[in-house]
Design a protein that fits this description.
- The chain is α+β, with helices and mostly antiparallel strands.
- The protein has 9 helices and 4 strands; from the N terminus they run H-H-H-H-E-H-H-E-E-E-H-H-H.
- Strands 2-1-3-4 form a 4-stranded mixed β-sheet, covered by helices on one side.
- Strand 3 and strand 4 form a beta hairpin.
- The protein is globular and about 60 Å long.
- The N and C termini lie far apart (87 Å).
């Protein structure tokens, strides 16, 4: 099967989208959304800690919505209403806000799904190198397995290892047809998936890396400066700033150096609704009214 041949059509719902529920009617009888009460919304301790750690990385806590939802989906297998309520309780957001995020991205599911995700890249580079055939082989290998969800994906941004796939977030490639069965076997046993083909273990092209180096795992976070914590103290950021959609904020020290003006407008000289010059002797309006 080629990229221009009888390729399996992209599965779509009745409304034409690949994403379920986007056209669900709004229930206008529901009460306005509120932030769940932490006292009435128990959250698993591990999940709460993960969400709070993600929030500490950003000046605006809403920026942690995606990693927080990923953490909840990892615990529950999908972004269930209960999971979204728990995230909303910790982040002090409404469930509606988080639902809008979860329904926008393909990698979140608001309906029950298999535990394992296999995304096969079928964009141009991968497709030319056999991704369509591998996708068919992957579907056949996982058929009947309730724990494996196989989907095609437009682009995963790893053309250098095409054809490739993402297995529970782990990039593997280049793939051949026999790898489809191996992926399913590795998922069933719970071991590393195609460890010899994982992107993280490909030799670095960085000339500063020793040729004999074999350890390409994640760096030690305690000893390595990480970009996601740049500028933050050891306890994260103590202030929760509302983000770019809110008014520009200034710290107490900045306000002391740049105090607010005593009078922000010239309202005293020109009452509301009256433009400068209006009512002044000789102004066009005054002249017109005097006629």
């Amino acid at each position: 099967m080629s990229a221009t041949g009888s390729r399996r059509p992209v599965p779509r719902f009745g409304h034409g989208s690949r994403v379920p529920g986007w056209d669900d009617a709004v229930d206008l009888t529901k009460p306005p959304a509120t932030i769940p009460d932490p006292a009435l919304t128990p959250v698993p301790p591990g999940l709460k800690e993960t969400i709070e750690a993600a929030m500490a990385k950003y000046p605006d806590r809403r920026s942690a919505a995606i990693p927080a939802l990923h953490a909840a989906q990892e615990v529950y297998g999908w972004c269930s209403p209960e999971a979204i309520d728990q995230v909303a309780s910790v982040m002090e957001l409404t469930p509606a806000y988080l639902t809008s995020v979860a329904t926008f991205y393909d990698m979140f599911s608001t309906v029950p799904k298999p535990r394992n995700d296999v995304y096969v890249c079928t964009n141009i580079s991968c497709s030319l190198l056999g991704a369509d055939e591998f996708f068919e082989a992957m579907l056949a290998a996982a058929e009947g397995d309730p724990d494996v969800d196989v989907r095609s994906f437009e682009c995963l941004g790893a053309c250098d290892i095409a054809p490739m796939a993402s297995v529970n977030g782990e990039y593997v490639g280049p793939l051949d047809l026999a790898d489809a069965e191996r992926i399913v076997e590795d998922l069933r046993t719970g071991g590393p998936v195609l460890e010899h083909k994982q992107l993280r273990y490909r030799r670095s092209a960085d000339p500063g890396v020793a040729e004999e180096e074999t350890d390409f795992g994640p760096p030690d976070r305690d000893e390595t400066p990480m970009s996601d914590t740049a500028g933050l103290g050891p306890e994260g950021d103590a202030e929760d700033r509302p983000g770019p959609t809110a008014a520009i904020e200034m710290t107490t020290e900045q306000l002391a150096d740049h105090p607010e003006p005593e009078k922000a407008t010239d309202e005293g000289e020109h009452p509301a609704g009256q433009a400068p010059g209006d009512g002044d002797e000789g102004s066009p309006r005054a002249t017109e009214e005097g006629r």
